TrEMBL record:
Alphabetical GO biological process terms: ribosomal small subunit biogenesis; rRNA processing
Major subcellular location class: cytoplasm
Statement: the UniProt record of this protein carries the keyword Cell membrane: no
UniProt protein name: Adenylate kinase isoenzyme 6 homolog
HAMAP family in UniProt: Adenylate_kinase_AK6 (MF_00039)
First-level EC class: transferase
Swiss-Prot/TrEMBL keywords: ATP-binding, Cytoplasm, Kinase, Nucleotide-binding, Nucleus, Ribosome biogenesis, rRNA processing, Transferase
GO MF term set: AMP kinase activity; ATP binding; ATP hydrolysis activity
Organism, as annotated: Scheffersomyces spartinae
InterPro entries: Adenyl_kinase_AK6 (IPR020618), P-loop_NTPase (IPR027417)
Residue numbers spanned by region NMPbind: 40-63
Lineage: Eukaryota, Fungi, Dikarya, Ascomycota, Saccharomycotina
């Protein structure tokens, strides 16, 4: 049985919206408490060799999702993981407590991504993704609405406010779950599901 005493949070959004900046500020706001850690999924995939190919047009690696998720699940079982990735709907719901979708105005996003030297196709694809609210929709389809929040990330003030808000949420979650959150299915429910499956 796995018991979690710390929440798992996904910080997601279109590339350049500020995921890594928010995660780093959160870890620092948690006073570098080592029961929390920031998982930058792109770096994690690189370190654990979870790439299956390279997309020349979009100038990006294609992730081996099965391998990546198997490894990430082990991390999420521990709790206190702040996950930084542009995909959010691939994790088991039972392991995710809050999904923060960062939103940026297109002019800000254009400036941030241009500075990175993104090619035109990649830049346009990301701007379209933000306009079409692709990641917000994925989050809303993948998780219960009450755990999904969309936050503006256009300025340093926005970021400070967002980080304070998430820190307050973490504090409340920990107080509310002092006995831990178990990932084990309730035994009666488990027996019922097994019986239904065998029918
Ligand atoms: N709210 C904000 N206000 C001002 N600048 C910001 C904000 N959010 C991000 N930036 C700036 O935009 C750039 C991209 O930020 P960051 O790397 O955190 O984005 P990201 O969403 O993690 O990108 P990626 O998905 O590509 O890793 C950085 O230079 C960062 O300082």
């Amino acid at each position: 049985m796995t018991v979690r005493y710390r929440p798992n949070i996904i910080i997601t959004g279109t590339p350049g919206c500020g995921k890594t900046s928010h995660c780093e500020a959160l870890i620092s706001g948690l006073n570098n408490d080592d029961s929390y850690s920031h998982i930058n999924v792109s770096d994690f995939a690189k370190e654990n060799k979870c790439f299956e190919s390279y997309d020349q047009v979009l100038d990006t690696h294609v992730v081996d999702e099965d391998k990546l998720l198997d490894l990430l699940e082990v991390e999420l079982e521990k709790g206190g993981r702040i996950v930084d990735w542009h995909c959010c709907d691939v994790f088991p719901e039972r392991l995710i407590d809050l999904v923060v979708v960062l939103r940026s105005d297109n002019s800000n996003l254009f400036d941030r991504l241009s500075k990175r030297g993104y090619n035109e196709i990649k830049l346009q694809e990301n701007l379209d993704c933000e306009i079409m609210e692709v990641i917000l929709n994925e989050a809303r389809e993948g998780y219960q609405p009450e755990i999904v929040i969309a936050l503006e990330s256009n300025s340093a003030e926005d970021m400070d406010e967002n980080v304070d808000r998430i820190l307050a949420w973490i504090d409340n979650w920990v107080k509310d779950h002092q006995d831990g959150v178990t990932n084990e299915l309730d035994p009666d429910l488990k027996a019922k599901l097994e019986a239904e499956r065998d029918e």
